[in-house]
Structures are given as C-alpha cells and as structure tokens.
What we know:
Blueprint: H1 12-27, H2 30-37, H3 41-55, E1 60-61, E2 68-69, H4 71-97, E3 102-109, H5 120-130, E4 134-141, H6 144-153, E5 158-162, E6 170-185, H7 198-203, E7 205-209, H8 215-221, E8 225-230, H9 233-241, E9 247-250, H10 251-259, E10 263-265, E11 272-282, H11 289-297
Parallel strand pairs: 3-4, 3-5, 7-8
Antiparallel strand pairs: 1-2, 5-11, 6-9, 6-10, 6-11
Amino acid sequence: MNKPVALGQVSDFDIRLLRIFKTVVECGSFSAAESVLGVSRSAISLHMGDLEKRLGVCLCRRGRAGFALTDEGREVLRAANILLSAIEDFRNEVNQLHQQLRGDLNIGIINNLVTQSHMHITQALKALSARGPGVCINIAMMVPSDIEQGVLDGTLHVGVIPETHPLPGLAYLRLYEEQSSLYCSSEHPFFAATAPDDTAIRQAHAIFPNYRITEQAHRWLGQLHCTAKASDREGIAFLILTGHYIGFLPDHYAASWVARGQMRAIRPDEYRYSTPLSVVVRKGRRSHMVLDSFLGELGAEDTGREGY
C-alpha cells in the first residue's frame, strides 16, 4: 500500500494547476479545454499529471470511455472551488478598500476656521465621508502648539494650523492665506470716526494674542498699546465687543459682527496682515489609507510620508 502524500504549503504554482483542473472539469475534456486555456492538449495533460503528483491522488479517468472524475477528484474539485472562491473574495475586499475606506481620522483644527470661505477642509472631509461608512472622523478644536504636539506624538493624524514657526519634525502643506484686519466694536469711539489717525490708533487699548503669531503680525502689534491678552480668537472678539479694546481678527471670522453692525475694520487698507494656514503631518510617517485619502482630496497625497 502506497504511503499517503502529505501536501505541504500551497504555492502559486499549485493554485495555477487547480485553476487548470477546474477549467478542464467545466469543459468536460482536455480537448475542449484547449481553446479556453490557450494551451495544447499535451500541455494540459502534463499539468494534470503534475497536480496529481503534488496531491498524491488520481483526479480523473481519461480514455476511450471519455473524461470522468474519480471520487478523490470530486473532493479535490470541491475543495478547489472553496479555495479559489476565497482568493477571489480576498481580492475583491482589498480592491474595495480603495473605494470604501475604513478607519479613523483624528484631526486637530484651530478654532473659528469654519467661517473661512475657502472651505478646503470642509470639502475634503465631505469627500472622505462619501468614500465609505467605515470612516470615523474625530475633530478636536485645539491651540496650534497642542495640535503640533499631537501630530508629533501620534495622537493626531493631521492638523490645521497657522504656519508661524515650522517645526523640523513636521511637514506643512500650505492651504491659503488668512487675512486679518484691525477691528473695533460699535461701542468704541473709533466706530463713528471716518479714519482715526495713527497716533490715536497707537494710543488706544489693544489686545495681544497669547499664542504664536507671524513676524508680520508681531510688527503690527508692536506698534499698538496692548493692555489685554487673549488665548484665542474668540477671546479677542469678546474683548473687542466690550467697546474698550481694538484688536486684530481674521476677516472671515469678524464678518458676522460686521454684517450686524457690531464691528468695523479700522483703516482696513493699511492695518492688516496675512497668516498662512497649513495642513501639518509628521515627517516620515507610515502610509495610512484614510489620512492619505484626506490629503489626496487636498492635493497632498505624499506630504510627510516615508521617502519624501
């Protein structure tokens, strides 16, 4: 009695032979399978012989009586169908990952960007959400320094911050320039004035942002009489609305108060500066499909990835 042959690891060659075997069975003979497989009958015979040797069983009878599966052949065919179907399912699932994403996107954003008319971030998040129900977007509103730290330590995948003093471990993608003007409220003496002179502006009580700002912003604020500080832009708005202070705000953020007649810009053609807003990711990061898709929607698929 022949010793049973134990099948080792299934190789790509084995899978190819099983596909040939399945096609021969479906065609009903070696000759009928020639045109489907695009190989000669003798080559098919050799492949079938190789498969039988690999498996240690006789798969079919071929001769004058025609082609017929053995009992072992029927069992191998059943197992082959399960295996080949599983391979196809795996291929389909992997391909669907590129169309229906799954996973988290942890993003840190500075306050008050939602009123920005460019809406690059909003549109990118909208497109990302449409890619699949398996995407979970987690937004944290934070100050720039905490966002940078979160991206560096991995608690955040990506951040959106003013680009003031770029850190060496981070990669920055410029989104747009945010324009800021000097504002006062309707209760401030400057509100009714046509154009306060420089001396009056520099003597008025002003607000200094208690967070990182650009050199251009520093130059402007250095000329003002700053007697109050605020940790974020909402705090600056609160102080301006008291009627006692003037301060710089992004134009898009101040627009709603301007429309209601509660604020106005002071000599906006002169007292203004711009701040670059950037998306930030960790340099040398590994590929992350959800993050890569989000950056792709912003036009920055490769920002910060290994090799870039």
